[in-house]
Amino acid sequence: MLSGIPTLLANLLFLGAIVYAMVLVIGSDLSSTLKGIFITLNVILFILNCIFWFGFMLIEPNEARVMVFFGKYRGTVKQNGFFWVNPFYSDGKLTLRARNMDAEPIKVNDKNGNPILIGQVIVWKVADTYKASFEIDNTSKSTLGQNQVHIGQMLVSDKMRAYEHFVKVQSDAALRFVAGQYAYDNSIDEDEKMTLRAGGEDINHILEKQLNERLALAGIEVLEARINNLAYAPEIAAVMLRRQQADAIIAAREKIVEGAVGMVKHALDKLSQEGVVELDSDKKAAMVSNLLVVLCSEENAQPIINSGTLYN
Q: Is the pLDDT score of 301 beyond 90?
């Protein structure tokens, strides 16, 4: 591989020399035999010069060219710029830019067998150009059923669509595997430490590791993977919603009762310390009952004036 600008200038000088030599030979008084020999030589040099023009290539940032010489892999050029290579190399163009995929939610069963809908977002790019070019079939759906074309002749968009299809299939498989290893939440087993709902970054790291292991064959690296959609499947969503509501109501009731008991205890201790009123066991029980009803009730209490005593 040579720098493109100096080689371009050299090729132009070579072409100019061929034309100048041709003019000199035609205008000379050499014999017809010598003229024929020189003209033939100039024609051969001119054809060789034309072949040299096919060796120039321009590589933009985050692009690569896979070099193949008569069926043999000769390397990959990732350096951006203007270069000249052997014109007989077939160069397959690849893009190394990052791409993202927002996968549609799929229905899977979690660890407890509950059907859930789970989706993911993936950021990926081609890391190993050799594997991406030769280890997998990089023919896109648009070329299926047609004559197969050489890697150097395929459009970059066709090859990237093929890679996107490969990533999609493998990402679905990885997502199903990860979702089947963990429960949606710990409502069934409260000792469950890792769940899909509460796992957060840990689940994302596990998913990213699974994707990299599956896509390494294709030379594709996953830069980031995260779950962006997680919900129960429609057939059980209503039941699970009622269960979550019941759990929330129970938790709220427990909190209310805990606070009410504390407030009643504080009131009794305050009355006893300041000697406001002397309460026996029956009066304390009645006061506790009334205070708990007032504090735990969902409706506002209606005051009642008792004109008698506790015992009549």
A: no
Mean pLDDT score of the chain, rounded to an integer? 82
Q: Which long-range contacts (CB under 8 A, 24 or more apart) does 86-91 make?
A: 86/55, 87/51, 87/52, 87/53, 87/54, 87/55, 89/55, 90/150, 90/151, 90/152, 90/153, 91/57, 91/65, 91/66, 91/67, 91/152
What pLDDT score does 148 carry? Answer: 42
Give one word for 87, left, alpha or beta, with left for phi > 0 and alpha for psi -120 to 50: alpha
C-alpha span between 211 and 171 (Å, rounded): 6
Query: How many CB atoms are located within 10 Å of the residue 132 CB?
Result: 27
Buried b (16+ CB within 10 A) or exposed e, 110-120: bbeebebbbeb
307 has a pLDDT exceeding 60: no
Report all structural domains of the chain as residue ranges with CATH numbers, in order of start: 2-94 (no CATH), 99-232 (3.30.479.30), 241-296 (no CATH)
